[in-house]
Amino acid sequence: MRAFGGVVRGLWITIALACLATGASAQSDADLSNCARGDIDARIAACSQLITQGLPIPSQEALAYADRAGAYLRKGLFDEAVADANKAIGLNPQLEIAYVNRSGAEMSLGRLDQAIDDADVALKLRPTDSEAYANRAGAELRKGLVERAMADADEAIRLDPNDSVAYVNRAGAELRLKLVDKAIADAGDALRLNPRDAFAYTDRSGAYAYQGRYDLALADASQAISLAPRLPPAYVARSFADIGLRQYQDAITDAGEAIRLDPNLAPAYVDRANGYFQTGAYDAAEADATKALSLAPNDANAYVVRAGVYAKQGHYEQAIADSNRAIGLKPDLAEAYLNRSFVYLHMHRFAETIADASEAIRLKPELAEAYVNRSAAYGAVGQYDLAIADATHTIDLNPNLAEAYIDRSVAYSRKGLMDQALADANQGLALNPNLAQAYADRGYDYLVKGMARGVDRHDRDALLGHALADENRAMQLDPHLAAPYIIRAAYRLGMGQRAAAIADLRAGQAIDPTNPQVLAAFKNLGIAR
Hints:
Elements: H1 10-16, H2 26-36, H3 40-53, H4 58-75, H5 78-91, H6 96-108, H7 112-125, H8 130-142, H9 146-159, H10 164-176, H11 180-193, H12 198-210, H13 214-227, H14 232-244, H15 248-261, H16 266-278, H17 282-295, H18 300-312, H19 316-329, H20 334-346, H21 350-363, H22 368-380, H23 384-397, H24 402-414, H25 418-431, H26 436-451, H27 457-477, H28 483-494, H29 498-511, H30 516-525
Helix pairs in contact: 1-2, 1-4, 2-3, 3-4, 4-5, 4-6, 5-6, 6-7, 6-8, 7-8, 8-9, 8-10, 9-10, 10-11, 10-12, 11-12, 12-13, 12-14, 13-14, 14-15, 14-16, 15-16, 16-17, 16-18, 17-18, 18-19, 18-20, 19-20, 20-21, 20-22, 21-22, 22-23, 22-24, 23-24, 24-25, 24-26, 25-26, 26-27, 26-28, 27-28, ...
């Protein structure tokens, strides 16, 4: 997407003012030339000199203002560009280039309807103006009129195959349409024509990120920032690449800079929310996602992030509602199904977990977390081989995802393969030592091994000691988890500590009153619930 477009045709002013050259001083000759072409600051100075000294014909003065508007546009002084274009149009309402330059400036200021209107006027005055088509394409793209933007960019390129702005805008449209290879090619053509085009680097960064080539995305976004340090979309592009590379603090920083430069840029709030979410700052993540939705109520990605926050906070109905909204807005958004599968898993709605995780996998086969959720659900319904297969595939995709080892550990445990279960549990907890349920599950495995027949007393004592330590650790990490109390109760019963076991069962029941394991234990002990 283009923040500005429209190259000043300095030749017009050179021709129009040629009649003054004979009687002008050497300095005036230089001003005429510099106003028309060359270094941006020199053009602004030269045009200002011409305007200050006065021009005898209004149409000539209009050209000077139009040229200076174009120079301001290139310098990023958009308000000044609009002001000069207004003066040019007031002096000569038929001056097409003034409308072109004002269109580019209006677009950069976010006044997209005005930008399109100005481009329309320019095209009525000169139907073959490639820059007007390119500007209109940029404004249409930012309004979400992707097909129209693509058509206008195509026409701009047909009229002028060397219009780098048109290639940038077409790349942006192609990216929206998921024509990623074409977007990369068009951004490359734009950079061939203008190697210092920050917008081309920004668009190509987005395309690379879509392909999962986050290193390339980060490099292009960084190059865009080096060329245009005040370009908010470049920081958004880099924050998105940061997230893909799991550099979440960098993502928060880059998205924060984009917000500082443009407080109304919804994607920046989404990226920062995602960064906060990944680092466990859930309140900040919720606030940023909600802010993004206040700016862009149909932003499916913002709903996805907020749904993830609600899920982690245990607000499951809200998480489902936000996931449903995201899916309604963007039915092919894999992460929305992923979040909903996570919620269904924790609500013990395992069939729905499997369905949503499977849809997420269909849409995005490399989404490792979807296999994790489906693996856990398969394990919960007794399909242990499927659970092991999904967990193993997750590990192939991401060997550092602790939950995959934990899910496979549980499945191995249920199949009675305790050595494999303990090996995976150890690996999972080495990757993430803060998983309370994993400690509870490993403690259970130690307990089963320790209670098995044929285990010598020394090994038995060591295994049971590990079991007790793991259940205690699980309670420390999550006092609201029933499983550690139930497993510790089993340990205490095995050790003949009946009263302590009953106290643990009572504690587990207080957390989860309908837990079937607690109810069965009370029944076996002949104790009223």
